[in-house]
Amino acid sequence: KICESSGESLLSCEGECCSVFHMECLGLKSMPDEKFICTECKNGEHTCFSCKLPGKDVKRCSVNTCGKFYHEACVRKFATALFESRGFRCPQHCCTACSVDKDIHKASKGRMVRCFRCPIAYHSGDGCIAAGSLFVSSHILICSNHSKRNHSSSAVNVGFCFVCARGGKLLCCESCPASFHPECLNIEMPEGCWNCNDCKAGKKLRYKQIVWVKLGNYRQVCYFWVLMLWMWWPAEICNPRSVPLNIQGLKHDIGDFPVFFFGSHDYYWVHQGRVFPYVEGDKSFAEGQTSINKTFKKALEEAAKRFQELKAQRESKEALEIERNSRKPPPYKHIKSNKVIGKVQIQVADLSEIPRCNCKPSDENPCGLESECLNRMLQYECHPQVCPAGERCQNQCFTKRLYPDAEIIKTDRRGWGLRTKRSIKKGEFVNEYVGELIDEEECRLRIKRAHENSVTNFYMLTVTKDRIIDAGPKGNYSRFMNHSCNPNCETQKWTVNGDIRVGLFALCDIPAGMELTFNYNLDCLGNGRTECHCGAENCSGFLGVRPKTAFATANEEKVKNAKLKQKKRKIKTEQKQMHEDNCFQCGDGGELVMCDKKDCPKAYHLLCLNLTQPPFGKWECPWHQCDICSNPAVSFCEFCPHSFCKDHEKGALVASALDGRLCCSAHD
Length: 668
Description:
Blueprint: E1 10-12, E2 20-22, H1 39-43, E3 46-47, E4 54-55, E5 59-60, E6 69-70, H2 72-75, E7 82-84, E8 87-89, H3 96-100, H4 104-107, E9 112-115, E10 121-123, E11 134-135, E12 140-142, E13 171-172, E14 179-180, H5 197-200, E15 210-213, H6 223-230, E16 233-237, H7 245-248, E17 256-261, E18 267-271, E19 275-277, H8 294-325, E20 333-334, E21 339-340, H9 374-377, H10 397-400, E22 406-410, E23 416-420, E24 429-432, E25 436-438, H11 440-452, E26 460-464, E27 467-470, E28 474-475, E29 482-483, E30 489-496, E31 499-506, E32 515-518, E33 524-525, H12 550-569, E34 593-594, E35 603-604, E36 635-636, E37 643-644, E38 654-655, E39 662-663
């Protein structure tokens, strides 16, 4: 930990930090007789591995063998950190390269090589490790972020925009050769230093990658090197261990890596500031230059050929991995009950608070499906110490986990699914939906992180306002149940020993071999406008949009017939109030709730109103109540449900450019 070098006579701290020291670095001449604990562990003031500032407010990584400490604010900056019920797994247990590539499932699997100085880790092997990293041992390195290069050796930028391939006034990245027109990025020209999005995200060059290289102001030793001063030349990044010994011995620093130049077959040490990736069919640098030198023409041909070879190797490896992964579902941790994350708590009732049903042990099926058990009717599970039926009680399915046998299957268009192995009666308990129990703040964080990493599968289900079950990382077989607009199961919220839990119950008799489904409806978070492939006759087309019910279809048919009769008899009646076809809040169509106020045409999605069920009785939409005090509104925004009463209308609305229609401050 002190001199950053390996060797013999290493002494391990037996405290929380798991650090290793040379005896001479500690000023010791021989191994101590007693258990060795370092100064930081003795004082209880550990240094944050990210910001390097000491303090008692740092927290330890939950992995037993790790020993790294962080401020919570510091570790939350890393997308590769994973927060769990017992704390967090720090970024050094997730591959940074796989995370940048959005390969989340692969990122935390396999053997890692970790940076000694910062929270960076990579999978071992050339596929992930950033070019320019320095190995200290087989599993420890110093990553390329710790280069000591000064401003004089900064990036050599290209003279054209990476978006439109034209020259002009360019915005140049300080860390790599990338250049852009500010207008191509839809930004203003920034002041001071600026880094491109790839550099900000931590994207690094890797070994066996074809690149364009420019040596810049290196010494001219032959005609080839003269060309290299002003031309971008194709090359391949090499692992330092694979180049000749005389090249390995050339002066270089952390962040430098050797490249093999095509055409001339020479080697040189460069850094990220003079290199950018080669793209398939890339000839934008070759136009007009092939006649200058035969070596350059040969280099272009060799680069194109080598690029195709590496591409074929990569595609073959990916195809094997996809084929292997298609045999079994993506990895998750199987759990039997909900696991609490963060501030969420599981409620436990006192025995005196648990309701007692009126069933008797002598009943044919006490507390059973067809019994008149009061607890079952009110969706309470009986407690074995309270229920009069005792051991014969049949209303303890959650606690005893009485699930019918089911198996995970691969479906045609909907990924993995769940199929029952035996027939299930209508109303029978199918499974409990379990996972990590998180609050709304953690839920939004996870959805945001999922979107950033292009994750499209969500397993989140709302229990109460601030309690959400996420069955993504951890769960049981219920997480594989697909959506259907005409499902054979439904979710029900039951009270079990004082805590609300979610169960899946059969809506009809389900024969053996049938896939189990439920309607995700408006309870599931994170799906957005995902296309539905359930194949039901009443399919709504999208997840989260309610399908047309049989009642609605019959109603439409009645209205249609009534209109036909009206037309035939030529009866003039007052026209029924017409409502808008799209939600006044979000502008999308679907299953809508209509405002009952006379002459109001507005309609809304339940989700946009933060409701889970249609309002009972006559209902007026929020457009008719003041946003501030809820009194009757007199001024209305014509583009959204914002409105204001007489006392609060002053300055709240302005005339828009659209025919002078009034709009609130939420609109341009």
